[in-house]
Amino acid sequence: MTPLVKICGLRTPATLEAALAAGADMVGFVFFPKSPRHVGLETARALGARARGRARIVALTVDPDDSLLANVVEALDPDVLQLHGRERPDRVAAIGARFGRATLKAIGVAAPEDLDAAAAYEGAADFLLIDAKPPKGAALPGGNGLPFDWRLARDFAPTRPWLLSGGLGPDNVAAAIRATGARGVDVSSGVERAPGVKDETKIAAFVAAARKAFARAAQGVE
Which of 8, 66, 79, 90 is catalytic? Predict the structure, then answer.
């Protein structure tokens, strides 16, 4: 798998441009009103137009119905639909088939059996995202800035491409890549200066650190 760096939760032209200039492979937009990173459809339309052809565009939803997905697809025209709720494998497969988009299914991880559960999605999703399971009572299914024990993912080897998420930032993404062997990373709160407010300097630093770590891993350098 070609290494992938995804910057999620973008909301403004300036921070989107920072992600694109840094060389992000995927840029994510959140459609979940409880999140401080939520964007409206018209904002997404404008941001998507800026990103088209420069990075893969990802739309994040949580247990969406088809009406919401239809609106998101019409406005953003995403390359990938990220499903960050409790969607079952059959629902993930149905969404991909109905909307003709690649799907990325997020799996919350806190224990080894959570990674075992990811196997059910390998035939349904195009990508998997391994994220820290949210704390009990958390309002958000992701973007909580919390890592999980990376050692759990050391032997994770699905047939689908996968990305690592959860508590990553410029200072620890290299260690996370070394610990897990991940060939894709996803960050949101780790490149913010306040909830929902991205920091352009942190975005650039994250992408650079991830790229360097991927290159070292390819060379077999610890």
Answer: 8
Q: Which among 65, 66, 90, 131 is annotated as catalytic? A: 131
Residue 60 phi, psi dihedral angles, 5° rounding: -95, 125
- Ordered DSSP codes for 19-38: HHHHT-SEEEEE--TTSTTB
The per-residue pLDDT for 117 is: 84
Residue 58's DSSP bridge partners are 28, 80
CATH topology of domain 4-218: TIM Barrel (3.20.20)
- Rounded Cα gap, residues 123 and 163, in angstroms: 17
Host H or E run for residue 127:
strand 127-132
Please confirm, yes or no, whether 77 is among the known catalytic residues. Answer: no
Instruction: Write down the pLDDT at residue 111.
Output: 87
Summarize pLDDT for 14-39 with one digit per residue, the tens.
999 999 999 999 999 999 999 999 99
User: 43: pLDDT confidence band, cut at 50, 70 and 90?
Assistant: very high
Q: Is 131 tagged catalytic? A: yes
What separation, in Å, do the N-terminal and C-terminal C-alpha atoms of the chain show?
Answer: 19
- Cα separation, 198 vs 36, whole angstroms: 11
State how far the Cα of 61 lies from the Cα of 36, in Å rounded to an integer. 14
